[in-house]
Design brief:
Layout (H helix, E strand, L loop, with lengths): L1 H5 L23 H14 L5 E6 L4 H9 L4 E7 L18 H13 L1 H10 L14 H13 L2 H13 L3 H6 L4 E6 L11 H7 L3 E6 L6 H4 L1 H13 L1
Helix pairs in contact: 2-3, 4-5, 4-7, 5-6
């Protein structure tokens, strides 16, 4: 955020319900996520906005398809969940539903340990040979996670894994930059980034060799520069 602020952009951090805002027991689904974002953009009267969604932030595609592109200029997907994560007959390359059922079980059993293990391992690729882990990054990810609501996070696993964005993506006419690392252990590359870039009407795919899911943090210099080039194009 500071990088783009220093380059003259107004930068707004949208806080999804259930993260650190007043907690709600319901509405933890893509429809509500998109509607919340629409309410924010209307309240701030945003025009020509560039929506950047990392991971579950793929909700920006649902927002644009559901509420239209009149306030938006471009969009960026980074390691994002669209088109569909879970395996179905129509999406044979997806992950089996039991994978996400197990994530919910781990979260419910001990959320603190679950977040710690995720951040210190596959999220940032710290479990890869020769990759030095960052205690500061791990602890900050854990801190942010624990500020959120357990119910929101539990339900959110269903939201990000079972929402099919295929028809949403087909509707998007604005330029979309799709950025994805081919060593993403959270949202596997082959069934996400390349498919999203093909489904949108004006998509550009940038593939990053060896980059992890959390590449906006670990590879910030590269990711920021490529986003800036897209914004200025």
């Amino acid at each position: 955020m500071l990088f783009f602020l220093q380059h003259g952009y107004r930068v707004i951090a949208h806080e999804r319900r259930g993260t650190d805002a007043p907690q709600t027991s319901d509405g933890h689904d893509m429809d509500h996520y998109a509607d919340d974002l629409a309410a924010l953009t209307a309240h701030l009267d945003l025009q020509d906005a560039v929506h950047v969604g990392h991971s579950t932030g793929g909700e920006v595609m649902h927002y644009l398809a559901r509420h239209g592109e009149s306030r938006a200029a471009k969009a960026v997907l980074i390691s994002a969940v669209p088109p569909l994560m879970v395996q179905t007959d129509a999406n044979p390359g997806g992950l089996p539903k039991k994978v996400f059922d197990e994530l919910q079980a781990l979260l419910a059993a001990n959320r603190s340990e679950f977040y710690r293990a995720l951040a210190s391992g596959p999220f940032y690729g710290f479990n890869r040979p020769g990759v030095g882990p960052s205690e500061a990054i791990t602890e900050n990810w854990w801190r942010q996670g624990m500020l959120g609501g357990a119910k929101a996070h539990y339900d959110g696993i269903v939201a990000f894994s079972q929402t099919d964005f295929t028809e949403d993506l087909k509707k998007i006419t604005a330029p979309v930059l799709v950025m994805h690392g081919d060593d993403d252990q959270i949202v596997p590359y082959a069934d996400s980034g390349p498919l999203s870039a093909k489904l949108v009407q004006n998509g550009t795919l940038k593939t990053y060799q060896g980059f992890p899911h959390g590449m906006p943090t670990t590879e910030a210099k590269t990711i920021n520069a490529d986003q800036l080039a897209f914004l200025q194009s």
